[in-house]
Design a protein that fits this description.
Elements: H1 2-28, H2 30-50, H3 68-77, H4 84-94, H5 99-104, H6 108-119, H7 124-138, H8 143-164, E1 175-176, H9 180-198, H10 208-222, H11 240-247, H12 252-259, H13 261-272, H14 276-295, E2 312-313, H15 315-334, H16 337-340, H17 356-367, H18 382-394, H19 397-403, H20 406-420, H21 429-443, H22 446-454, H23 466-479, H24 496-510, H25 513-519, H26 524-543, H27 552-570, H28 576-585, H29 588-599, H30 614-620, H31 624-633, H32 635-648, H33 652-657, H34 669-681, H35 685-692, H36 715-722, H37 733-747, H38 750-760, H39 762-772, H40 784-797, H41 852-858, H42 867-884, H43 890-904, H44 933-948, H45 956-975, H46 990-998, H47 1003-1013, H48 1019-1022, H49 1035-1040, H50 1044-1060, H51 1062-1070, H52 1075-1084, H53 1093-1106, H54 1110-1121, H55 1123-1131, H56 1135-1141, H57 1153-1172
Antiparallel strand pairs: 1-2
Helix pairs in contact: 3-4, 3-6, 4-7, 6-7, 6-8, 7-9, 8-9, 8-10, 9-11, 9-12, 10-13, 11-15, 12-15, 14-15, 14-17, 15-18, 17-18, 17-20, 18-21, 20-21, 20-23, 21-22, 21-24, 23-24, 23-26, 24-25, 24-27, 26-27, 27-29, 28-50, 29-31, 31-35, 32-34, 35-38, 36-37, 37-40, 38-44, 39-40, 41-42, 43-53, ...
Length: 1174
């Protein structure tokens, strides 16, 4: 160590000495540099005194420093009254002086006037040299020089237009740009415009006065000679604005000036004040052009590409360039709030002020009269420019909210209705394409979607909404059912391009939950699927027709149309109910294959989407059919391959230069994204069941260190987990750690865990690994793998919400423990688990506490249980839950549920399922071998949980037998109302277990209550097994295997989140996860492991008493309660793992009743109606 210290000190001293020597050498060389500068000055003086420099070399031979007397002499010689030769020589000498010296001289004011005279001089040398001098001064990084130069040039142009405008052609005469005076004028304005485009990047560095002077000078020039009262008068001459329109037709200078808030405020204030005529002129140009287009549809100019070398602008082209500049000016201004505040705008020739809506409508009306696009430069076609301008505005949510109203929507719908009416003239396809593009931009914003879906009120969907007209046109276009008329010369069906454009507009609406519900009646998914099948058949026939081969264009059009249909059909998977509709079309495999082809190319979902296919992959994986499609398309193999490459491999370039550092975290950041993608795919039980049910895992004797698994999903990683005794664990540390983490996440879903445990006996394997993980002295080795195994064993052996179980730390050094040198949690290698993991939960007192709810129940008779009584009960329950929720437990809670069931049985709208008595023999011996292993393990878990929370008093064996009997009775009862095409309910029935524990393990009472609940609507959502393959479902829903918990409850949870809590919804989307998946997870296992036992019983009571729709409101309340954690874990990119692995802390349903009542008032009509229509 001492040698190392000495070596470091020596190296540091040596480096410091070298640096000091370098500084000394640099200091000594300064004198020689000064000598060189003096020699350079002498040479420049000699060059200047010889007078041999010319215009071309004056800027390249250096600069000369002169005295104030010399500046005064040059200023006198530049006077316009002097001979031309003297002025030329003086200007040449001035060009050799540094601009800073010129500006600092005492003669600057006189030089400034002389330079403006030189710019306006008829002598080419003087005018061009003066212009070059201004360009040179613009290049000096000094704001004072730039300001003076700009104002000098602007004032010169203002004076020139005032004095010499009579020499310019009028607005109704052609402009020849080859004339010398026009060429020089264009060069001056071009120099001015180039500085305008460059200055926004630097003016924030300088005083605000610099900005104000530049803005004031520019707008003063542009507002010069604007005759707003005499539009296009034949005597009006061309203005500076006309010439600027030719040079910068798209008003790039204005766009850049508005980009930063620093200059935007000053510019908008100027337009609101004395320079408002510039804005009035721009608006007037737009309105007059639209008026002329309506009266004479072909009024705007067009020319073919071979005319690009023309040197003369026609009057129509000059006016058109002015219009384009004005359009870009106004559309850019309207993007910003301050610009929109300038409207309504008073225009002299109009009696009423011009609003933004009127401006938009006038632009839209131009589309109604366009036919096929004119040949020539499509970039400057009027309809295209107007369409882009409107689209750029409509993608702004704030603009749509403030400026787009029903009148604008009505104008957009006129061309569409012309196709839906049997009589009348249809709009052209070019018009339809522009309308569709604008509508697509509108639907990309929340405000735009609401406007199309809700019509006037923007609160609830309406039959008069524009969405109905758009969907009707799209549906009839796909089906070929548009009305025809003999008077029409066009065909009945629009082109593929038009149809696809309007289907895309519908897609922007049906890929959100609210839009899908509104458009459900049009069956667009079926129309798109039928059109795709028809196109696929046509394409097949063309490619296999022996009588001829298709043309290249027709084949390409068919392929593009087929992909467009698949793309739009795929986007139904963006919502839970949409995924159900997609699966019913039978095209899910083809859609997923198409998605995989785009996913591998890292393409976005659409031009209006900012993210890729991550959310859609997760949504598709929530169903068995979707998981199967992902597997067939190669998605799962690609995810596994990507994960393993990051885990075990590096690119050749990295390996050749430096080895990748060994990760310090259990899951390296390079692997994290792939790991989370795999978690998303395996999030649902349906995916795990589809991939692992009755699948045996290979048990190889050895595994290669660089072996990449090719089997579906994670067969190989699980094989490593279970057969780790056959390999050297130290070589597979990364794999083992990651697979343990993956297995831990999967085990959070109780049904997934029961399936894996029943097939692969994972717990026993982990216990064996813990037993063999010992030192020679017999002590258990504590490392990351043994700690992860210990955590997994405790987690899978116990059930409990907040405070009901203790999970060990997953870190060697627990930050919550004071002792950092020891792992404080005991390891074990056999069951039962140590007592340190089971907290003591105090039993609830047996004395019944009097409450308003118990008094209400005891004061009513059986005959009084009707709708009015139920409303009174609900009001009492809400009051008690808010004030004394702890009293709603035990006998009071059970009595409330039982009497509520009696009241609901008398209401036909609640008894939606036919009652069928259980078959004889339902109470067979529970020890019969026919009991599935999954159910046996689930019963043991439920009984352990019941004993832990003091819900069961009987011994575990008796309680297990009774629960097994109840499960078997319910299974037999439900099987009488099922069409079993895919087998009985494959999961453990957690709702039956919950009711069994609520009734303290009473078999008969449990069966009786479950039979009563099974008749009611709430059973379809509280009890997932109730509607499994049920005859009460439609054939399509039953065949899909998608439970109503996902397609209905999950769908409405996402609907409310999109409207009420967009931050939470966005956090899910950015994480590649969906709210519907986590709510399905929670509800399927009846919140076991997530809520405390008291909150679980309150959940059941609330749904039975308050209505089935409260299931949606409870889930939304839970997500709102977790909002802070959701947003936080979105930042750390582990939202999925957090929601699955952690109990919900601090949630009390009683505290959220006010919020749930508010949601009921807003959404009950939508949610409950959808729940009844399953």
């Amino acid at each position: 160590f001492s040698d190392l210290t000495h070596m470091i000190c020596s190296s540091t001293i040596s480096a410091a000495s070298t640096m000091l020597r370098s500084l000394d050498e640099e200091h000594n060389s300064m004198s020689s540099d000064e000598d060189a500068e003096s020699q350079l000055s002498k040479r420049m003086k000699s060059v200047f005194s010889e007078g041999a420099s010319t215009y071309g070399s004056s800027f390249n031979q250096g600069m000369f420093f002169m005295s104030q007397e010399q500046f005064h002499c040059i200023a006198d010689e530049l006077d316009c009254r002097k001979p031309i030769d003297i002025r030329r020589d003086a200007l040449t000498r001035l060009c050799q002086v540094p601009p800073s010296d010129v500006m600092a001289s005492e003669s600057w004011s006189q030089l400034r006037v002389s330079l403006m005279d030189a710019l306006a001089d008829s002598d080419p040398f003087l005018s061009h040299t003066a212009l070059s001098f201004h360009a040179k001064m613009f290049a000096v990084p000094n704001y004072q020089i730039m300001r003076e130069t700009y104002t000098c040039l602007a004032e010169h142009l203002i004076r020139w237009f005032k004095v010499f405008s009579h020499s310019l052609p009028s607005v109704n005469e052609p402009l020849d740009i080859t004339k010398p005076d026009i060429v020089l004028l264009l060069k001056r304005i071009r120099l001015l415009n180039e500085f305008q485009c460059e200055v926004p990047s630097i003016w924030v560095r300088y005083p605000e006065s610099f900005l104000e002077v530049i803005v004031d000078s520019s707008l003063a020039l542009l507002t010069l000679q604007l005759n707003l009262g005499r539009f296009n008068n034949s005597g009006d001459k061309l203005t500076a604005l006309n010439f600027l329109s030719l040079i910068d037709i798209r008003a790039n200078w204005f766009r850049k000036w508005l980009h930063g808030n620093y200059s935007r405020a000053t510019l908008i204030n100027s337009l609101e004040g004395k320079y408002q005529p510039l804005l009035v002129d721009a608006v007037l140009q737009c309105l007059m052009f639209c008026r002329d287009s309506l009266s004479k549809p072909s009024s705007h100019p067009h020319h073919s590409p071979q005319d690009t070398r023309r040197t003369t602008y026609t009057p129509r082209e000059l006016r058109y360039a002015h219009f384009v500049h004005s359009l870009c000016f106004v559309s850019r201004l309207l993007i910003y709030t301050g610009g929109r505040e300038l409207f309504p705008l008073n225009v002299r020739i109009f009696s009423q002020p011009i609003s933004v809506q009127q401006l938009l409508i006038s632009w839209i009306q131009v589309f109604h009269f366009i036919s096929k696009p004119k040949p020539g430069h499509k970039a400057y076609e009027a309809a295209g420019l107007l369409g882009k301008a409107i689209c750029s505005l409509c993608v702004s949510n704030a603009f749509v909210e403030e400026c787009v109203g029903n009148d604008v929507i009505a104008a957009l719908l006129v061309p569409i209705t012309s196709w839906l009416e049997p009589s009348g003239k249809r709009s052209s396809e070019a018009c339809m394409l522009h309308i569709a593009e604008i509508l697509a931009s509108l639907t990309s914003t929340c405000a735009g979607r609401k406007l199309l879906l809700h019509a006037n009120n923007r609160i609830s969907p309406s039959r008069s909404a524009a969405a109905h007209i758009i969907a009707e046109f799209a549906q009839k276009s796909l089906n070929g059912n548009l009305p025809t008329s003999p008077s029409r010369s066009t065909g009945a069906a629009p082109s593929y391009q038009v149809t696809g454009a309007f289907v895309f507009v519908c897609r922007q609406m049906y890929n959100v939950c609210e839009g899908l519900l509104l458009l459900l009646e049009y069956q667009l998914h079926q129309s798109i699927a039928d059109a795709w099948k028809q196109t696929k058949g046509i394409s097949y026939n063309l490619n296999h027709n022996s009588f001829g081969s298709p043309t290249q264009s027709s084949s390409r059009n068919l392929v593009m149309w087929e992909e467009t249909l698949l793309d739009n059909l795929l986007n139904f998977a963006a919502t839970p109910k949409g995924l159900l509709l997609l699966q019913q079309t039978g095209a899910i495999n083809e859609c997923v294959a198409y998605m995989h082809s785009r996913y591998t190319k890292k393409l976005q979902v659409s031009k209006c989407e900012k993210f890729g296919y991550g959310v859609m992959v997760t949504q598709v994986a929530a169903t068995a059919a979707g998981t199967s499609a992902l597997q067939k398309a190669g998605f799962l193999r690609a995810i596994i391959h990507e994960l393993w490459v990051h885990l075990e491999h590096a690119t050749d370039e990295i390996r050749m230069t430096a080895p990748r550092p060994f990760p310090l975290q259990p899951i390296d950041r390079a692997v994290h994204k792939s790991f989370m993608g795999l978690v998303n795919v395996l999030s649902s039980y349906q995916a795990v069941h589809e991939l692992f049910y009755q699948q045996s895992l290979p048990n190889k004797s050895s595994y290669g260190f660089r072996e990449i698994p090719e089997s579906p999903v994670v067969s190989f990683p699980f094989c490593v987990i279970i057969s780790a005794t056959s390999v050297h664990c130290e070589l597979f540390y990364n794999r083992l750690t990651l697979c343990r983490r993956l297995l831990t996440v999967l085990a959070c879903n109780l049904d997934s865990w029961l399936l894996l445990e029943s097939q692969y006996h994972i717990q026993q394997t982990l216990l064996d690994l813990q037993k063999t993980n010992r030192t020679l002295e017999g002590e258990m080795i504590i490392d990351q793998l043994s700690i992860e195994r210990n955590y997994l064993l405790v987690k899978t052996h116990t059930i409990g919400g907040e405070g009901e179980r203790l999970l060990p730390s997953r870190n060697l050094f627990d930050p919550h423990q004071r002792r950092q040198n020891n792992y404080v949690w005991p390891l074990f290698h056999h069951f039962p688990i140590p007592k340190e993991y089971s907290p003591t939960i105090a039993a609830q007192p047996s004395m019944k506490k009097e409450s308003a709810l118990s008094r209400f129940l005891s004061s009513t008779k059986s005959a009084e249980k009707n709708r009015q009584w139920l409303d009174q009960l609900r009001a009492t329950l809400i009051k008690v839950m808010k004030s004394a929720a702890s009293t709603v437990r035990g006998g009071v809670l059970i009595e409330t549920i039982e009497k509520t069931l009696q009241a609901l049985e008398r209401m036909p709208e609640e008894r939606v399922f036919k009652k069928s008595p259980p078959k004889a023999g339902a109470n067979r011996d529970p020890s019969t071998p026919s009991t599935p292993l999954v159910q046996t393990i689930g019963v043991k878990l439920a009984i352990r949980y019941g004993k832990q929370v003091n819900a069961l008093k009987a011994n575990p064996e008796t309680a297990a037998g009774n629960l097994t009997a109840v499960l078997r009775s319910c299974g037999q009862f439900l099987s009488q109302q099922q069409k079993l095409t895919s087998g009985p309910y494959p999961c453990h029935d957690w709702f039956v277990s919950t009711v069994f524990l609520m009734l303290s393990g009473s078999k008969d009472r449990s069966i009786g209550m479950l039979l009563k609940i099974s008749e009611l609507l709430c059973s379809g959502y509280l009890w997932p097994a109730r509607l499994h393959a049920s005859i009460h479902l439609s054939d399509g829903v039953r065949a899909s295997g998608i439970p109503p918990l996902f397609s209905c409850t999950g769908h409405h949870v996402e609907l409310i989140l999109q409207t009420e809590h967009p931050l939470i919804y966005s956090a899910f989307r950015m994480s590649g996860y969906t709210p519907s998946q986590i709510t399905q997870h929670w509800l399927t296992q009846c919140f076991w492991n997530y809520l405390s036992w008291t909150q679980i019983t309150h959940y059941v009571l609330t749904i039975v008493t308050m209505g089935s729709d409260y299931q949606v409101y409870i889930c939304v309340s839970l997500l709102k309660h977790l909002q802070h954690e959701i947003l936080s874990h979105r930042q750390t990119q582990d939202l999925q793992v957090f929601l699955k692995e952690n109990a919900i802390k601090g949630f009390l349903g009683s505290e959220w009743f006010d919020y749930m009542i508010k949601l009921e008032q807003s959404y009950r009509s939508t949610v409950l109606t959808s729940m009844r229509n399953i």
